[in-house]
C-alpha cells in the first residue's frame, strides 16, 4: 500500500490547490480555461460501475465507459458548449463541485503526482426540474509543466451503478 504525502508537503498543497482551482473553473463554466489545465495527452475516463458479489475482483464493466475522452474530444465538447447546439445544457446547469478527501502520492517520476479525491456534484437546471447529486471518487495523474501542474489522466468512479442524472453533459 502506498503511503500518502503529508498534508504539509508542498506537492500535496499544490495538488489540492489545483483541484480547488479546477472546481472553480467548472462551477463558473470557464471551460476554455479548464481545458488549458490539461496535458495534450490527457485521458479522461468514467467507467460504468456494476454491482457484484464481494470478492468478484471487479466493480466496473470491462470495456464499457460513460465516456473515454482525449484532448481532441474534450476540446470539441468545450467548443460545442459555446454554440446553440448544446440542447442538453440550454438553459445551462447551475453547478457546484465539492472536492474533498484529497490524498496525494509521489510517483516514480518526480514530475508526476498521483492524486485521489472525492467529489460531490450538485446540479440544478431551470425552475421546474429537480436538482441532482452525483458522488464519485477520482484518481488523477498530475504532471508538472512550465505552466505548473496539469491534469494528464482522470478516472472517475461513480458511487452508484445507475446514474440518476438526466445526462452527463457536465464535466467532473
From TrEMBL:
GO MF annotation terms: 3-phenylpropionate dioxygenase activity
Residue stretches spanning the membrane: none
Enzyme class, first EC level, given as a word: oxidoreductase
Domain of life assignment: Bacteria
Keyword list, A-Z: Dioxygenase, Oxidoreductase
EC number(s) per entry: 1.14.12.19
A Pfam match: Ring_hydroxyl_B
GO biological process per UniProt: 3-phenylpropionate catabolic process
Protein family: Belongs to the bacterial ring-hydroxylating dioxygenase beta subunit family.
Protein name according to UniProt: 3-phenylpropionate/cinnamic acid dioxygenase subunit beta
Amino acid at each position: 500500500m502506498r503511503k500518502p504525502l503529508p498534508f504539509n508537503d508542498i506537492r500535496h498543497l499544490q495538488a489540492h490547490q489545483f483541484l480547488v482551482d479546477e472546481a472553480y473553473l467548472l462551477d463558473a463554466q470557464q471551460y476554455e480555461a479548464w481545458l488549458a489545465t490539461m496535458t495534450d495527452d490527457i485521458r479522461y475516463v468514467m467507467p460504468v460501475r456494476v454491482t457484484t458479489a464481494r470478492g468478484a475482483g471487479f466493480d466496473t464493466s470491462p470495456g464499457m465507459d460513460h465516456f473515454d475522452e482525449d484532448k481532441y474530444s474534450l476540446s470539441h465538447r468545450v467548443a460545442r458548449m459555446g454554440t446553440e447546439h448544446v440542447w442538453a445544457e440550454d438553459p445551462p446547469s447551475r453547478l457546484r463541485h465539492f472536492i474533498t478527501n484529497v490524498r496525494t502520492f509521489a510517483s516514480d517520476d518526480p514530475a508526476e503526482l498521483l492524486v485521489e479525491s472525492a467529489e460531490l456534484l450538485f446540479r440544478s437546471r431551470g425552475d421546474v426540474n429537480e436538482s441532482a447529486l452525483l458522488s464519485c471518487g477520482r484518481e488523477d495523474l498530475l504532471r508538472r509543466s512550465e505552466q505548473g501542474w496539469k491534469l494528464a489522466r482522470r478516472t472517475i468512479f461513480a458511487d452508484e451503478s445507475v446514474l440518476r442524472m438526466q445526462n452527463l453533459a457536465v464535466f467532473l
